[in-house]
Specification:
With about 170 residues, this protein is of the alpha/beta class. It is built from four helices and eight strands.
Length: about 170
Amino acid sequence: MKLLAKYQDDQYPKQTITHVRKTVRAIVFNNDKKIALHHLDGHDDFGYRNYYETPGGGVKKGERLIDALKREIKEELGVSIKNIKSIGRIVDYYNLIGQCNNIFYYMCEVDDDNIGKHFDNYENVLIKETVWVDINTALKLMENMNKAPLEILVARKDSLILKTIKEKYIEMF
């Protein structure tokens, strides 16, 4: 998958990177051409979180990227997906936890929305709600994420993906 960007963590003090995490994330469109964003609100190792991000999560050892994407979207949104398109890959770093993230981004559409969410304990604590918004609203939400270090790191990568989709697939909007 094409590397779209590589971002260094300029928000937290530099630290040795001790592990790599492979993740999948998606811009998921519903029938109204709105996309899903999670509103996170809670505390963890990064401190207080109150921002938006695209749905997705970690790839299990031996799991194919597409299978991980389908599993994560089913767990987090309670939907199955179709028309999956690869957008690109971003590599970024979280100095605070010594992690390199290898993130594979996709765009897709809701296929069936009668499955039901299955958050794990961590997601139950942090994900306040899932909102469905048009892509311009999503970009505005990302632009306003500039108050806390983790917000800035998340907005940087998700904004790039949203802008890429808007430019490349402009006829959808």
